[in-house]
Amino acid sequence: MKKFLIVSVLAGLACSSVVAADGATLYKKCVACHGAKAEKKYLGKIPALNTIEVDKMVEDMMAYKAGSKNDFKMGAVMKGQMASMSEEDMKAVAEHIQTLK
């Protein structure tokens, strides 16, 4: 029984590191509009992402995903971008953006 428990724990740790969200990889789909360093003010209106705090960015991404945010009439576009992202993914992206400053 102990061997099974140890193997289960080790397998769980290995899987969680493989499945963990990679903010840098996920951010690649954002670069066209937001810039390689998250520095672009898209359409000259939307603030540069590298100026927004992690919690606020995740909150905004969750709202776009839910369809309750439509800043600068970008709600539909952003909802599509957020559709496949989990909250963990969003946090990973937001944390990655903080490293680009």
From TrEMBL:
Residues 1-20 form the signal peptide. InterPro entries: Cyt_c-like_dom (IPR009056), Cyt_c-like_dom_sf (IPR036909). Residues 18-101 form the Cytochrome c domain. Gene3D superfamilies: Cytochrome c-like domain. The keyword Transferase does not apply. Keywords: Heme, Iron, Metal-binding, Signal. Pfam families: Cytochrom_C. GO terms for molecular function: electron transfer activity; heme binding; metal ion binding. It comes from the Bacteria. This is Cytochrome C.
